[in-house]
Amino acid sequence: MTRFARFRPSADDAVALFAGVAAVVGSFAAVGFAPSFVASPIERWLARRMPGAVVSLAIQFLGSLGQQLNLVAAALVAVCVVAAVARVAGTLGDRLANRAVGPVVAGGVVFGVATLLTGSVPSSGGAAVGTALTLGLAGLSGSLPARGATSPDRRRVLASLGTAAGLGVVATVLTDDTSQPTATIPDDASPAVREALEAAADQSLAVDGLEPLVSDEFFSVDINAVDPEVDATQWSLSVTGSVEEEITVDYEQLRSMDARTEFHTLRCVGESLNGTKMDNALWTGVPVRTLLDRAGPDSDCDCVRVHAADDYYQVFPIDALNGAMLAYRMNGRPLPQGHGYPARALVPGHWGEINVKWITEIEVIDRDAEGYWEERGWHGTGPVETVAKIHAQNTLPDGRVQVGGHAYAGTRGVSAVEVSTDGGDSWSEARLSDPLVESVDWAGEPGETPHAPDVWRQWAFEYEPPAGEHEVVARAIEADGTVQPETEREAFPHGPSGWVSRTVE
Known InterPro entries for this protein (predicted)? Predict the structure, then answer.
């Protein structure tokens, strides 16, 4: 016998492993991708304790995949823990010569541990049922009279595998997401919302492969792989800290305040230079200054720490909130869960990381501090970098080449996009979509702070291609004539910058 032969897994080990899989799948079938999903607390624990350098590398090179892999790792940990419990319980049942002991003990222990971990009876119940059902059916299958050459152990393994797979099918059916894209205009949209969304559709350039001015799908980046579930009836937002009077408003109070509807573009500080984590939507909400002015900030450093329901927090100058809103609707619909329901912050012209979702508190602080991502080496609280992206490339019927994309400069605005088809030696001006908003001109009512529009523009350029391979480069021109900087910079730690180029054959 070789050294490794003694570690060969047995049928009992395989059954226990599939019981672990069934437990995780059972929890998912009960609650879906919710914070109470049995793998979610483990994923959060792993994410919080991962070194900042590792997190930064994962963001830069894996993007959202890194977070998904972390959730998979958390699920594997849960599988292994349940498998160990199932193995011990199965052994106990064998020693007592009672087939019911293993499923009952394993199910009970899994229910208890999962309840302590998640605080959710449905999630824990799903995990317990998955465990007990797998062990029970495996034991029953192994005790049936033999048929053919299939051994009892083989029947037990196949039964446990089939149970886990069957629960997977049930989970898929129960958690199927049939929600509509957020860019469609809802039937109950207000006239202002409908007019704005229809105008955006009309102004979008007809370029194949180019996303319209209101994004079909809006990117989402969070510190957790599973979004928090916040009950709007229990939610409240407080302004605390160095203020004359701490105030708190609930969801109904927030929606009863004077609101405004605006387009806002968001760009992720961790995206690649020509990445797709930049999108635009129409938002409805209340100016942040409405609440700040009521509370009366009195801070030595004029800083705020903004808190979220998922334990995220960000620190930035209080002046950045001039023109900011507390959004509770997106494209005429209640804010989706993945975008911060019931309310989120929208801070014009800044990187996405300070547009805190699931916002619960605005804390005015006396001394500067670091936010969640700053503690991990990032410094994305400043104004967003100007960029012209190249996302579309088409060959037209007449043989010309068409390229297109989006340009964004935060509140500085984009006045032009220039394109070079010879690697930057010469430049031509591209076509731009009409501005979605010419200006934001509030009359100075309480809480309404004037600010420039924070909206992207589309661009397109058609040209006669030279013979062979060539390099297309795009750069944006800001409203005051400032040319987008050429020097390329990686996302870490201040956000990506530089001219975008694409090789066209």
Answer: Ig_E-set, MoCF_OxRdtse_dimer, OxRdtase_Mopterin-bd_dom, OxRdtase_Mopterin-bd_sf
